[in-house]
Amino acid sequence: MSDGDFKEKLKQGFEHAFSIENVNALTEAEKKLVEMTADAVVERGMEAPALMLLESCRPLGALSSGAAAFLEPILASFVSAEKLEVFLRLMERKNAIEMLIETIEKQSKSR
User: Fold this and answer.
1) Cβ–Cβ < 8 Å for 82, 33
2) Exposure of 47 by Cβ count < 10 A (0-12 exposed, 13-18 middle, 19+ buried)?
């Protein structure tokens, strides 16, 4: 392998490793979970308390993901394993709480 090939391969590897393309793109399962959660909140008329809770938890987003992972065995008795896995992946995102807030607000205005 020539020096030029090695450098090009190394460059491509680093570009891929540190790429942030589609960081905000949700999977279909995550979209469904956000919509389902927002529907449940709006259906029960709990928009204001839910938004207040989410806004107050926004700075602690990373901690909430860790706490949810820690409580996974307990949460698994209330929620299916598939939904819990999607929830944990969603909470790892920096903008997950913001997405949920926006969805609740959007659905609240449409009703």
Assistant:
1) no
2) middle
Single-letter residue type at 98: E
Contact 102, 35 (CB under 8 A): no
When divided into structural domains, the chain yields a total of 1
Distance CA 31, CA 34 (A): 5
**pLDDT value, residue 18:** 55
Q: What share of the chain is helix, strand, coil (3-state, %, to 5)?
A: 75, 0, 25
**Domain-embedded: residue 55:** yes
Whole-Å CA distances, 63 to 15, 19, 89, 93: 29, 24, 13, 12
104 pLDDT above the threshold of 90 = yes
* Residues spanned by the domain of 59: 26-110
pLDDT in tens, 36-51: 999 999 999 999 999 9
* Residue of 106, 70, 111, 109 whose CA lies nearest to 91: 70
Does this model's pTM top 0.85? My answer is no
- How far apart are the C-alpha atoms of 96 and 28, rounded to whole Å? 14
